[in-house]
Amino acid sequence: MRYSSALRCSACEQRAILERAVAAKLVAESHHALVLYECPVGNGVHVRNPKFEKNST
Asked: What is the pTM of this model?
C-alpha cells in the first residue's frame, strides 16, 4: 500500500485511509512524530502529525 495512492476519507479532511499495519509502520518510521487514530466514521485508520497541525492553524 502506498500512502500517496491510498483512498481518501471525505469525513476526515481527505486523510489517507490506511490499514492498521501500514499506519503503524509509518508511525514507527517517523520516530513517533506521526500518530495513528481510528477514523470516527469507520474508514480504517489515519495518521497525523499533531505538532505540525497544531502550528498550522
From this structure: 0.83
